[in-house]
Amino acid sequence: MLKNLIFLIIIIFSWYSISTTHALSEKTEKTEKTETIEHLTIYVPGAENGGYDYTANALNDVLLQSGLVKKIDIVHLVGVGGVLALTHFIHNVFTEEYAILLGGRSMMGAALYNNSSVSILQTTPLACLIGKPLAIAVEKNSPIENINDLLEGISTDTLMIKWIGGSAGAVDNVFLKDLFVEMGLDVEELNYHPVPGGGQAVAKQLISGNYTAAISTLDEFSQAISDKEIRIIALTSKEVIEGLDIPTLTSVGINIAMNDWHGVFISTKTSESKKHILSELFENLSKNSMWQKIIKDSHWQNKYIDDDKFLDFLNSEQALLSSKFTAKKTDSVAKNSFDKQTKNLLRNPYRWASYIAIVCVILLIMILIIKAKNKNREEKLQHNLKKIEEENRQNKEKLAEKVNGLSKHIEHEFAKWGLTPTEKEIALMLLKGLTFKEIAEVRSKSERTVRQQAGAIYAKSSLSNRSDLAAYFLEDLMAP
């Protein structure tokens, strides 16, 4: 009996060993048969050195070095927080055999913020890959020493804190709005300046000194951190990240945390067989030791979710972000009324500077009014001057006409009297008032000769003397 029992146990054990070996062999064979993709195109919705670009380059390194893909092309499509890339991907007819789009919370938010006609839900979600914490940074020489200084500044004078970050509607913008709500501040007073395209542009704008603080993913600040041009004063993750001596907002009493996430999407036109191959590719990637090391070294979070669960996650994200960008009611617009602005001005610690600015504006308006009046007066004077000049011109023309007429009249009378050329010349000199002596000197004659010639002129004209000669011609110029 005992021998039979032992024999039965041996048989069962042998059968189990054979079955396990066969299963392992089958699994190994299936893994070995996983298809290596010859060529993969990754569409990146942003600029080089941006958050999506860091993810794309990490994928490129791991997939190539692991032999999962032989060749990878990375295509950057910049604009409107990734909406242009999403639009292109949805409507494009792909010539590539395998093409994927990187997307995330920022892309979803930008599409909703801009009321775009396209949505990330118009693609086929393949897998969520990673989560990325946001970082709040200040310029290296900023008087803001830590996150508490910045929060105090926001509470004291909201509008004076100038923020720089990613595209409007992106996760940077959404987080700051949530922060204002958590702090009990008016979201409409958020002084936020978006930088389309992302990349290192946010850090460069902060370094320029025109902004108080910046917000973006931690990896987008990596170059500026290495160059020691900025300081990271807080992270938006829920817990402090291992290896980074940087506080989170939750650690300083602000109960808010938010990370960006990046996932992989394919076109709805992709065949089921290719979808299956790509799904296996990113499932294998999630287990890859090299990929896990990059996630750890980059301070990312492993957020791998496969296609079915990823779709559910996307629907919940879409609903959450839609609620944040829902149009506000009319009564919320009333917050921007003049009364509220006046109230904010009065509680502002820099209100005296504001008063002085208002006085300066009033003085400037008065100066402009006085200047306008002086200009009108100057224009009137110019008009009167031109009028007087025109009248003088016309008088001169009339006088010239009379003088010209008198000359012709004199010449006519001289001819009528029968004066010789010499007598005409002497008669003109007499009319001009020259004495006999002066006429004699001009003509190089004796005064006696000039007197004789003058006598001949008087005789021919039937005039008695010089006075009668002058009166004869001046009478025509006298008013009647």
Average per-residue pLDDT, rounded, comes to 83
H and E order: HEHEHEHEHEHEHEHEEHHEHHHHHHHH
Distance between the termini: 171 Å
Largest sheet: 10 strands, mixed
Coiled coil: 371-405
InterPro entries: BUG (IPR005064), Bug_dom1 (IPR042100), Sig_transdc_resp-reg_C-effctor (IPR016032), Tscrpt_reg_LuxR_C (IPR000792), WH-like_DNA-bd_sf (IPR036388)
Keywords: Coiled coil, Membrane, Transmembrane, Transmembrane helix
Organism: Colwellia maritima
Structure description:
By secondary structure, the protein is of the alpha/beta class. The protein folds into four domains: 35-130 and 261-320, D-Maltodextrin-Binding Protein, domain 2; 132-259, 3-Layer(aba) Sandwich (D-Maltodextrin-Binding Protein, domain 2), CATH 3.40.190.10; 350-409; 418-480, Winged helix-like DNA-binding domain superfamily/Winged helix DNA-binding domain (Arc Repressor Mutant, subunit A). It is built from 18 helices and ten strands. The protein has helices spanning 2-32, 51-65, 83-91, 105-113, 147-156, 171-182, 201-207, 222-226, 272-286, 289-297, 307-324, 330-333, 338-347, 351-417, 421-431, 436-443, 447-461, 466-474, and strands spanning 37-44, 69-76, 99-104, 124-139, 163-165, 192-194, 213-217, 230-235, 259-266, 301-305. Strands 1, 2, 3, 4, 5, 6, 7, 8, 9 and 10 form a ten-stranded mixed beta sheet that branches. Helix 4 packs across helix 11 (307-324) and helix 15 (421-431) packs across helix 17 (447-461). It is elongated. The chain starts with a helix and ends in a 6-residue tail after the last helix. Mean pLDDT is 83; it is low at 20-33 and 327-335. The chain crosses the membrane at residues 352-370. Belongs to the UPF0065 (bug) family. It comes from Colwellia maritima. Keywords: Coiled coil, Membrane, Transmembrane, Transmembrane helix. Residues 412-477 form the HTH luxR-type domain.
